[in-house]
Amino acid sequence: MEYKISVLKDPARIPELIELFRTGLGDTTEAFWKWRLFTDNGQQDQPFAVILEDESGFMAGVTSVLPVLYGEGESARKCIQFCDWVVHPDHRGRGLIKMAYEYAWTYFLDRGYDFIMEFPNDNSYPIFQKYGFHEEPHINCWNSRKHMFISKKAPRDFRINDMEIRFSKECPITGAIFSRDDRICRTPAYMKWKYDGNPETEYHWATIWKKENCTGYVVYTLTKGRLRTAVNVYDWEYPYADSHILREILHKIGKQGNYVSIWGRYSKTEENLLEQCGLRRSMCSTRLMLKALSAKGWPEPLTLTRIDTDY
What we know:
Elements: E1 4-7, H1 14-22, H2 30-38, E2 48-53, E3 59-70, E4 77-87, H3 96-109, E5 115-118, H4 125-130, E6 134-136, E7 140-143, E8 158-160, E9 163-168, H5 188-196, E10 204-210, E11 213-224, E12 229-237, H6 244-254, E13 259-265, H7 268-276, E14 280-283, E15 288-292, E16 304-305
Parallel strand pairs: 4-5, 12-13
Antiparallel strand pairs: 1-2, 2-3, 3-4, 5-15, 6-15, 7-13, 7-14, 8-9, 9-10, 10-11, 11-12, 13-16
């Protein structure tokens, strides 16, 4: 059977995408895909879906692709991240993932991209091994102590010396912020798209201000289970060597749940900071695989927060 590969450009086909995802990764919504694929995210290139259709036009496979930028100026690197590989059960074993990967490889190689980032599951892991992807270690999870019974309450703004810590449910950052070569560029436009635009997840903010300049932030969600509520930190930036402000923020937001969890791949300095905040480190099973498209390749070190893999 011959398959046609193309980029999904018509929002009217989102119901087909939803039905395909239902066969592999579960239920999604039209609002979610309109936000994810058809809304400006503040990056140079926009996210999109690569679809594979059989001879009748049936959508048999898909992967969404997120193009992002690391760093600025001469040090900038352009990255693509494959997300959400799904192949319909009736079309598996026919090389559709390979076809989509080769299509995207050529597409982005011709557009000057520097590396590919992938977080494979057990099924796709052998495929990316075969294509020569480099596997990076050291993705960890830091957790606070768990308290079964705790009186939960929302945090209030507070001050430490000349720093003000503010809590909100929308991104309060409007100015230029936190340019780092080892992380996806967090422009205000990108952050508002990523956190405020997502119709399926409510994010909470703790921001650190010195006068009217934002000098750090923590973005988190509340994930409620049957007996416990987890405070999951999705993104953070903290520029201070002293841990006392971050420790106090984590303490305040932790009162909304039974424990705080921070996932990611960080520098030694950041790892030490998390440990100074009383968090305990454990290994996780997430795989990170990378492949260079240009001589620049990927940045070293490469910092990842939970949000970088939850697109």
